[in-house]
Amino acid sequence: MTTDTQQKILDAVDASFDAQLATTRDFVAIPSTRGAEGPCQDMIGDLLRQRGYEVDDWHIDVGDLKDLRGFGPIEHDFSKARTVVGTYRPSNISGKSLILQGHCDVVPAGPLDMWETPPFSPTIKDGRMYGRGACDMKSGTIGALYALDAIKAAELKPTARIHFQSVIEEESTGVGALSTLQRGYRADACFIPEPTGETMVRSQVGVIWFRLKVRGFPVHVFEAGAGANAIMAAYHLIRSLQKLEEEWNERARADRHFKAVAHPLNFNPGIIKGGDWASSVPAWCDVDCRIAVLPGWSIAECQKEILACVSAAARDHRFLSNNPPQVEWSGFLSEGYELTNSAEPEAAFAKAFEAVYGGAVPDRAFTALTDTRFYGLNYNIPSLCFGAKGAAMHGFNEYVELESLRKSTKATALFIAEWCGVERV
């Protein structure tokens, strides 16, 4: 690709950046929490149809996915779950095919009075866009769409097949991405514009979600010693799981990517529910937990370690020793992923990065997970993950940096052109 062609694409990104931000604001304004992603998928479907893409919009059947590698159990109402894929098919095929994927699901906003601006009323100030999902990862999804627009605006068209995929469930199971593979979508490479802080994810952790179900013995608080407090018993188990977390992080010191990362494997008791009355010793407590695992670790073996840890802790507890807790697998059962067999797409992206940022692409060992794992682990499709800078993902006042978004959109556009090839319209 000539320098002149590159510049035309870069100029096209700049020319449409205000429109890109307007579309991003509309996308962020949709409160697409788990089970409520439909309006976002409608919007993506409309945007793809307006641009002339062939659109596939289908309901996800969990029964089709449950036996596939990486499937995580679904506990909520899944009756409205959909995946949307827009496909570009070239008249002349000479380049390499590509999957561009973003997820439209977002995590809950939490207490609204703890946000400086309403989470679903996206606000631009001080060079940032604030809002739930503005960073993770609606701005990246729309950025990828406008990267394709920029190629067209430069009077070019890709010479390879491109699937633009909008998925759900990235934040809890990953079955949205899994559904595209079950549907038959494949390509020579995948690119996911998650907010990676302008770094390439070289290695990422896997994640296991599980629920501790603890039962106690209720009595009136005036005779609390005669009962068994399920909430306090749950804390006993949590402390033991924190020790397992420490053990796993010791093992991580030997990992070639994560040995330089302080405490890469994080355990989090994220949801706690229990008890029925302040003056009754609680009879029950459920704790939803998340723990990370390293690439190459067996999910089944890690599950066994979690069960053994909980069982051992229960044996050391007066009440739980005779009333053992239950452990339920409640979402992610996801392996870690290391980017391999990716020299060709990485070389193409390196050219795009150098043209926009200068220098070599920085690498990152990621202590969260992305949907890249499905493509690499299940079908050996090299899956790159690179995106803009931002902050407060899953927290209050989440934001994406707009100039970083502009640059990442430019890099995405140049990568598409380099990898897929382009010709004059």
TrEMBL record:
Enzyme superclass (EC)? hydrolase
What's the protein here called? Acetylornithine deacetylase
Q: Which Gene3D superfamilies match?
A: 3.30.70.360, Zn peptidases (3.40.630.10)
Gene source species: Bradyrhizobium valentinum
Q: Which Pfam families match?
A: M20_dimer, Peptidase_M20
- Do you know which InterPro entries this protein is assigned to? ArgE/DapE, Bact_exopeptidase_dim_dom, Peptidase_M20, Peptidase_M20_dimer, Peptidase_M20A, YodQ-like
Q: Where is the Peptidase M20 dimerisation domain?
A: 204-316
- Report if keyword Hydrolase is assigned: yes
Which SUPFAM superfamilies does the record cross-reference, listed alphabetically? Bacterial exopeptidase dimerisation domain, Zn-dependent exopeptidases
Record key words, sorted: Cobalt, Hydrolase, Metal-binding, Zinc
Report if keyword Hydrolase is assigned: yes
Q: Which cofactor does it need?
A: Co(2+); Zn(2+)
A GO molecular function assigned to this protein is: metal ion binding
In the record, the note on similarity to other proteins reads: Belongs to the peptidase M20A family.
**The enzyme's E.C. designation:** 3.5.1.16
